[in-house]
Amino acid sequence: MKVEIYSDIACPWCHVGKSRFERALAAFPGADGVEVVYRPFQLDPGAPEKPLPHRAVLAEKYGPQSVAMDDRITAIGEAEGLAFDFDTVVENNSLLAHRLLRFVLDTYGPAAQARLKGRLLEAHFGEGLDIGDAARLADAAVAVGLDRAPVAAFLDGDELRDEVLAEIEEGRRRGVTAVPTFVFEGQWAVQGGQDPETFLRVLEQVAEATGAPAPEAGESCADGACEVPATGRG
């Protein structure tokens, strides 16, 4: 079984969704036969390529309610064992990080890509990692067991930019409008950071191929995903 997960490092629900899906996968008897691939998606493709404080960026978009939004996801993260420190979160355009994830997938395989994805989410939301800083992205790759030299050489160029942008566009053509979105066997999509029981049930349904109705994109809780804004930054 192949599961493609569309997500953005800049999305806190993608951090929650990854944790919950992995808990479900650990409880799934057929886990050894599941290939998980992370696909790129950008909530704000027009974000400037410079570090900006998260609190200021969110306040500009959502006003006073931004504090309550951060508090809610922080509480949800605590229940999942995930740290969200929004006072230190730095926002930046996520394209460079997505290019690195694609490079790692192509070079080292899905398992290495998943490790790096987890490290980037953990460091971005809990340790102030600037996802547009090539040196710190290389540090994250080393932290999950990858060699610095090839990663640094890749980050120093423009390789895979067009391929990643094409992947993002393909996701939109497939109907992805919010992240995380989990696509099972290229046919069934589940949107949002669902609870592990839901993910486990979907894994079982797809594996068994019983013909039971499968979840479709959009049939998930509305606040369990990060929506693409109607307009760009601001």
TrEMBL record:
Any one GO molecular function term: oxidoreductase activity
Top-level division of the source organism's lineage: Bacteria
Coiled coil: none
Keyword annotations from UniProtKB, A to Z: Isomerase
Location of the DSBA-like thioredoxin domain: 3-203
Record's signal peptide: none
SUPFAM superfamilies referenced in this protein's UniProt entry, alphabetically: Thioredoxin-like
InterPro entries: DSBA-like_thioredoxin_dom (IPR001853), Thioredoxin-like_sf (IPR036249)
Short name of one Pfam family: DSBA
Gene3D superfamilies in UniProt: Glutaredoxin
Annotated PANTHER family: GLUTATHIONE S-TRANSFERASE KAPPA, THIOREDOXIN SUPERFAMILY PROTEIN
Name of this protein: Putative DsbA family dithiol-disulfide isomerase
Record organism: Streptomyces eurocidicus
Lineage: Bacteria, Bacillati, Actinomycetota, Actinomycetes, Kitasatosporales
